[in-house]
Amino acid sequence: MWLSLGDPDWLCRVTLGGSGWATVESLQQAPADVHQFALCSLQPSEWARAYYDRYRQRGHGHHAALRALGAKWLKIIFVLWSRQLPYRAETHLATLARQQLRQAA
Fold first, then answer.
1. Type and span of the H or E element at 23
2. Burial class of residue 36, CB neighbours in 10 A (0-12, 13-18, 19+)
3. Structural domain of residue 7, as residue ranges?
4. pLDDT beneath 70: ranges in the chain
5. Closest CA to 48 of 16, 77, 17, 84
6. Could you tell me where the beta strands, DSSP code E, fall in the chain?
7. Which helix (H) or strand (E) holds 42?
8. CA atoms of 21 and 49, how far apart (whole Å)
9. What gap in Å lies between CA 41 and CA 18, rounded to an integer?
């Protein structure tokens, strides 16, 4: 599955392995990969930067904020994978806006 974070030049390939199953080695590397993915998403994704900055303002460290952002990305990637949909920043931002309106009501 390919993810584009709004910038057509920024793509990230998300795979589990040739067979579609995660290997022990890939699972051991997974936390570092998620951390790196979260770090790389800060520049092209406005919502990711805002999420990271809010987490930091609450007193959490850099790595804790990246872990939290990585967990958020994993949830998004799982939903996209399960529904066989591509990531679209506009769709995600619209979903966030709807959720904020529901919480405000």
1. none
2. middle
3. 2-104
4. 1-28, 105
5. 77
6. 2-4, 11-13
7. none
8. 31
9. 25
